[in-house]
Design goal:
The structure holds two protein chains of two kinds. Chain A is mostly helical. Chain A has two domains: about 150 residues, no CATH class; about 475 residues, no CATH class. Chain A has 35 helices and no strands. In chain A, helix 14 runs antiparallel to helix 15. The N terminus of chain A is likely disordered. The chains are: A mainly alpha, B mainly alpha.
């Protein structure tokens, strides 16, 4: 370097150098990243006689002061030509924007990296696309735009995270956010709960407390048979075990809270604190770590700010907080277990994921709403892995699931109990004897019941038909999601084709690793959240015996999708709308529980945190228009309810109107999830029927001249990433490109 | 930083600008000029300010169903008194034990609040409806607190607008708006401190902007809302006299003096006038100043007297154990066995009379006021004001722990002056906020207040510390800093002790069984238990008092040594 600075600059070289300087600024991570041998050669090529310092200070100041965030330009032919960097070298890949929304799979930094992390991400390339398409904007321009967007756009969470990062409190963001969310949860718990002061039956609070009392005092076999009229246990065994644990802890403090029969309806302040604390403890132990790992796995390759914002968005999820900490239930345990399962899938630990999902099912049978999506994902993965590895994985999964279930139900199974003992929990868990729907639920049945046809009257005496109809409709509802996952797995299945066999000789290690690692995430992974949404929403809309609280299940995948999405994108808009309407749909329930203030406070808080202003919407898309209409209707309804009491003839007027507002939104969210599923599936799996052209793009050979080659390469990759090329050929193309670049490296180093 | 326009030029003779008419932003001075036309409606709030406002409102809403102290019923009763009785009866009514004992402006304020209350629920303002705690009254009263606290927010916003360093001032303003003290006392315990500190800060703001007449008027108004602010009055008096009514060379400016005096008199006439006309002034004053209470409150406020009382207890035990002949006051011994309840009578140390506390307070204040007289600048005034409040808190008669806000709020404004100020602020704030914890004794609210305070501390102390930290220059300073940090860490241990202690006591009392005939055993157990019950309170009080006294000494030294 010293030698360089001492020599005098010549005009021509300086010009060249200016260019080099700008590009190399962008490439700093790359140069640092791994290929350190390249740097001296690059510099020597063009600037052996120039002064770096003088050029920088004279001509290039603006660009040096404010470097353009153009990381992805590296992947263009231009920059790689200049830098002689191989685009697909195994350096740290600066990809952004990998989220459930984006098509390419991502892996966690929390988990061991797999080869998948080195693949291109979908949205990173979308960004690059924008760049290339004519945003040759200067740094200042970009910065300006960013600032104006900041001013309009991001929500409280983003601003807060930015503030924290700027004040050097990056490490504090997660603990503070978790503590703040716990504070909010606890303060929601200061209010009343389901069934507060309403003897003789009370509500969900009393049910949960009763189960603690029941499990710590009775032998296991009586759990599902004891006094069924008074809140008999009707959740799967894991709930019972958790109740037992909580009960044991509670009895340490004060046995009278949980004495058998005598404690029924106890509502002392102390016992309330204990109950609330038990929810908070389980939530903190299961759900918050699940959210954290979600952040690290699904958003692992994104900036830490985005990750933090996503975490904050999820931590203050209003519907869940209101139901768990206000109304009183333990939904976060079930959702947390499912979330851990999904995270495990994303990290490639399918068996662990399966165990956690079974645990989730074993906590609350409601997790069945997710079962079609998760089952078909795993099946799709088995298909993807091909006959040998697929079968192996399938066998392992089946074995794991059966073992886990057996463990869960062990106390009711033969070695420990007579064979008939299992019937009691099963019949309690799946009650088919109740009606089609309870209360006023914003689903298809209640909606049509109000508008079109009185189902109960029409099918009097033949309820079985209704049950079948609801089962068929539900199945039809989740079919698109299931089909997408299976088809995606089939489409992308690993199959030793002719070219691969040929290439196998050239790059044996890469091919072998692709086949022999059953822990790589499947290409259908980005479809999973959408499939979960489709499946749970279809259950909510069409299935039998739905409760309004069940909307939490579709809201989880919806919020997961929303958390990683950029502001005011379609996904984000749908997510926010779905969440707000979800909370609104529970208004009658919350009002009954005396949680009206908490309801308003949480809506205010969360919308402010994510940066959504329902009163400042732009009708520039379908979802924007829909939001305006729905919010108008909802606020009108709330205002009316405040002012007018319902007429005596229709005491349920407001709940019914609520159903009429909410159901169409849920239906549309379901349709949208199907549509997005198809889109994402298309992007990852390729066009239907394009299989014939499979492998066409791989005809590029490394013998061509470097310039032409790099242009074509870039083109090819972009086409693939956008879903125009089938994924299998894409992978093979990547392989060949990698081999190619290695070759070129060798040539380069040879030249030196 | 260059586009900021600190408004330091004094605008004298102008009518006092009220916070609403400010639209300066540090970000866009050009916008300001364009929007001058609609000052009342133009707030130019940045999005983060709106965030802070709405999110904090959301959090406060969540506290609606939390524990309420008797102050809630006190204020409801005042709503009823002012609504259903003629003004002549306000200070005579004894229907409830919670008689009206705030100055007339607060009574007018309650009268104002009672008008919407009667529409919300007529039972709220029913005088005989004692202890009414329906949802309507809770929601109404709690929302009036949130609503009136907006004044505090508006004033704090104005503090940011003209600040020398807006980014620091923004943190300080936010820290005051979200102060755990306000959350604990106003939104859980129930009072209207946010509103009244809004007026105080407004008055301080006017002083900063050079509008000292307005500052004086606002302080007079504040005094007529709540007379506890008399703690601060000496500093105001000296400051206004020296810097407003006198020229820098020391000549009295009669016009200014007369205008200030007239303005203050007008305020007092509006407030007290009706009662003077009705000849009720003695009755009013007897309500306002009941000199029948003891030196310490039931729970010792963490001030100098707490340390003295603790020393007395220690000396008593010492004399009992080792038989040292000390003249022991028998009633004082009885007083100790009653724990912290009731009047405090010392057993060993000579008793303290109200007059003594008064003299000590005035003496200390005089020192600071002399300094203020010689250096009547805004910063000096602010420090002297803080010290005035601090002295009253330290040595006052029957000080309530809530009065610590009188110290913490003005001290916060000084937090970023230098590192020395900052460290004082940290010690005083941590000790002061911790000393408020016993105000809420219900476990649910206790957890909430602890977590909230921790979060507040993280968001305020860490970023400010990064900005103002100075490395200690010599070994004594290093030692001092280490000791202070150890003291601050000690609060974690203290909190752990306070939380776990009741559980320990219960398990121990459960295990010791006294036989019915054994008198000494049961007596001992009872005495031990009652003493044990108060042990956490006593420890909290003493430990906080140590920090607050130390912060007082620190601040005094800083002030007296500082060259203005």
């Amino acid at each position: 370097m010293d030698e360089m600075t001492s020599s005098a600059p010549s005009g021509e070289v300086r010009k060249r150098h200016v260019r080099d300087r700008t590009t190399s600024f962008n490439s700093i991570p790359h140069i640092k990243g791994g290929s350190s041998t390249l740097r001296p050669s690059t510099l020597r090529n063009c600037t052996s006689t120039t002064s770096l310092r003088s050029v920088g200070s004279e001509t290039d100041q603006s660009e040096i002061i404010a470097p353009v965030p153009r990381r992805h330009l590296l992947q263009t032919a231009e920059s790689s030509q200049w830098l002689r960097l191989d685009t697909f070298s195994d350096t740290r890949w600066p990809s952004r924007g990998v989220s459930p929304v984006s098509a390419a799979s991502s892996t966690a930094s929390a988990f061991p990296t797999s080869s998948a992390s080195k693949r291109l991400s979908f949205s990173a390339l979308m960004e690059q696309e924008k760049m290339v398409r004519g945003i040759t904007a200067s740094a200042s321009h970009l910065k300006e735009r960013q600032e104006s967007e900041d001013d309009l756009g991001p929500g409280g969470a983003r601003r807060w995270v930015r503030w924290m990062h700027r004040h050097g409190m990056k490490a504090w963001v997660v603990p503070c956010a978790v503590a703040a969310s716990m504070w909010v949860k606890w303060c929601i718990g200061l209010g009343t709960y389901s069934g507060h002061a309403t003897p003789p039956m009370f509500g969900d609070y009393e049910a949960q407390r009763h189960w603690m009392e029941l499990t710590i005092h009775l032998p296991v076999r009586e759990w599902y048979t004891y006094d069924l009229q008074y809140w008999g246990l009707d959740y799967p065994p894991l709930t019972a075990y958790a109740s037992w644990l909580c009960g044991k802890v509670g009895a340490l403090f004060e046995p009278s809270w949980l004495s058998l029969d005598a404690s029924r309806g106890i509502e002392s302040p102390d016992s309330k604190i204990f109950m609330r604390a038990s929810v908070l403890a389980l939530d903190t132990l299961l759900y918050i770590p699940a959210l954290y790992t979600f952040m690290r796995t699904w958003q692992g390759t994104r900036s830490s700010r985005t990750q933090h914002v996503a975490l904050v968005t999820l931590l203050f999820h209003p519907a869940l907080l209101l139901v768990d900490f206000g109304h009183f239930q333990y939904n976060s345990v079930m959702l947390g277990l499912t979330l851990i399962a999904i995270n495990s899938f994303a990290a490639g630990y399918d068996l662990m994921g399966a165990v956690f999902f079974v645990l989730s099912l074993g906590f609350k049978q409601m997790a069945l709403y997710y079962a079609p999506a998760i089952g078909s994902y795993l099946l799709g993965k088995c298909i993807f892995l091909g006959p040998v590895h697929g079968t192996r994985l399938f066998t392992r999964l089946a074995f794991t699931v059966i073992i886990t279930l057996a463990f869960l139900f062990a106390p009711f199974l033969p070695p420990l109990a007579p064979p008939s003992a299992i019937l009691a929990p099963i019949s309690r868990i799946f009650p088919f004897a109740r009606g089609l729907f309870e209360d006023k639920v914003a689903n298809f049945w209640c909606f049509t019941n109000v508008l079109l046809i009185k189902w109960k009257r029409a099918f009097e005496g033949s309820e079985g038909t209704l049950v079948k109809a609801s089962a068929v409709l539900t199945a039809l509802g989740f079919l698109p999601g299931v089909a997408g996952l299976l088809w995606g797995g089939w489409k992308a299945r690993l199959q030793p084709s002719k070219e691969q066999e040929k290439e196998g000789a050239a790059a044996p290690s890469a091919t072998a690793s692709l086949v022999s690692i059953p822990s790589t995430p499947t290409p259908t992974l980005p479809l999973l959240p959408y499939a979960l949404l489709t499946s749970s929403m279809s259950f909510f809309l069409f299935s039998f015996q739905v409760h309004e609280k069940t909307i939490l299940l579709p809201l989880l995948p919806l919020t997961l999708l929303l958390s990683g999405a950029p502001l005011n994108e379609e996904v984000w808009m749908w997510g926010v709308l779905g969440n707000n309407v979800g909370v609104f749909s529970m208004w009658p329930l919350l009002k009954k529980d005396g949680l009206g203030v908490q309801y308003f406070a949480m809506l205010l808080l969360w919308n402010r945190v994510v940066g959504h202003d329902p009163f400042r919407l732009r009708p520039n898309s379908f979802v924007g228009l829909l939001s305006i209409a729905v919010y108008a209707a909802a606020s009108l309804l709330q205002a009316l309810e405040l002012v007018i009491s319902p007429p005596a003839r229709y005491p349920d007027l407001f709940p019914v109107l609520n159903v009429l507002v909410c159901t169409p939104v849920f239906g549309l969210v379901w349709l949208w999830s199907v549509k997005r599923g198809i889109e994402v599936g298309w992007a990852t799996g390729g066009l239907p029927g394009s299989g014939a052209r499979r492998g066409d793009e791989v005809q590029m050979k490394p013998k061509e001249s470097p310039a032409v080659e790099s242009v074509r390469r870039d083109f090819g990759v972009r086409a693939m990433s956008l879903g125009y090329a089938p994924s299998q050929s894409r992978r093979r193309a990547l392989e060949s490109l990698r081999a190619e670049s290695m070759e070129r490296d060798a040539i380069l180093s040879g030249r030196q | 930083m260059s586009n900021l326009s600190p408004r330091s030029s004094p605008i004298q003779g102008h009518p006092p600008p009220i916070p609403e008419d400010s639209n300066e932003t540090d970000a866009a001075p050009s916008k300001v000029a364009a929007k001058r036309g609609w000052p009342w409606f133009n707030w130019d709030l940045s999005r983060s300010e709106v965030d802070l406002l709405l999110i904090s409102t959301g959090l406060k809403l969540l506290l609606f169903p939390s524990y309420r102290s008797t102050d809630f019923e006190v204020h409801r009763n005042w709503l009823a008194i002012t609504h259903s009785l003629p003004i002549s009866q306000w200070y005579y009514d004894t229907t409830s034990e919670w008689t009206l004992d705030y100055p007339p402006f607060f009574a007018y304020f309650e009268k104002l609040l009672s008008i919407p209350a009667s529409f919300v629920d007529a039972k709220i303002v029913d005088l005989n409806n004692l202890g009414y705690n329906a949802w309507s009254v809770v929601a109404y009263q709690r929302s009036t607190v949130i609503f009136t606290e907006l004044l505090l927010g508006a004033v704090l916003l104005r503090f940011v607008r003209g600040a020398v360093d807006p980014s620091r001032q923004r943190i300080i303003s936010a820290s005051l708006f979200l102060h755990p003290g306000f959350l604990i006392i106003d939104h859980i315990h129930f009072q209207y401190n946010g509103f009244m500190f809004g007026i105080l800060l407004w008055s301080i703001l006017m002083a900063r902007e050079g509008n000292k007449l307005a500052s004086g008027i606002l302080f007079a108004v504040l005094l007529n809302f709540k007379h506890i602010y008399m703690y601060l009055a000496p500093a105001y008096f000296i400051y206004l006299l020296r810097s407003y009514c006198m020229s820098p060379s020391g000549q009295i400016l009669p016009t200014r003096f007369i205008s200030l005096a007239n303005a203050v008199i007008v305020v007092f006439v509006i407030s007290l006038g009706p009662f003077i006309l009705m000849g009720q002034l003695p009755q009013l004053l007897s309500r306002l100043f009941p000199f029948t209470r003891g030196l310490n409150h039931a729970y010792w406020a963490p001030n100098a007297w707490a340390l003295v009382t603790a020393a007395d207890r220690v000396l008593l035990q010492f004399s009992k154990r080792f038989g040292v002949a000390l003249s022991v006051n028998e009633s004082g011994v009885a007083s100790t066995s009653r724990g912290l309840v009731g009047d405090t009578v010392f057993a060993v140390i000579p008793n303290v009379k109200p007059l003594h506390t008064f003299i000590i307070t005035i003496g200390f204040q005089a020192i600071f006021l002399i300094k203020l007289w010689s250096a009547p600048t805004y910063k000096s005034f602010l420090t002297a004001l803080t010290l005035c409040g601090y002295t009253s808190f330290m040595f006052g008669w029957h000080v309530h722990e809530k009065a610590v806000l009188l110290v913490l709020v003005p001290l916060s404004l000084l937090a970023t002056e230098t590192y020395a100020y900052f460290k004082t602020f940290v010690i005083a704030s941590v000790a002061g906020i911790f000393s408020l914890f016993p105000l809420l004794f219900t476990p649910a609210e206790s957890l909430a207040e602890v977590v909230y305070s921790l979060l507040w501390g993280a968001f305020v102390i860490i970023p400010l510390n990064r900005q103002v930290y100075e490395f200690p220059r010599s070994v004594p300073w290093v030692i001092l800093e280490t000791l202070e940090n150890i003291y601050l860490l000690g609060f974690a241990a203290l909190q752990a002790f306070v939380t776990l202690f009741p559980l320990l006591v219960r398990s121990r009392s459960g295990s010791t069984v006294c036989t019915p005939g054994d008198v000494s055993c049961s007596e001992d157990a009872a005495a031990g238990l009652s003493a044990l019950e108060f042990l956490p309170l006593l420890l909290t009080s003493v430990y906080c008092a140590v920090g607050l006294v130390w912060a007082f000494i620190r601040l005094s030294v800083i002030y007296l040594k500082h060259q203005y």
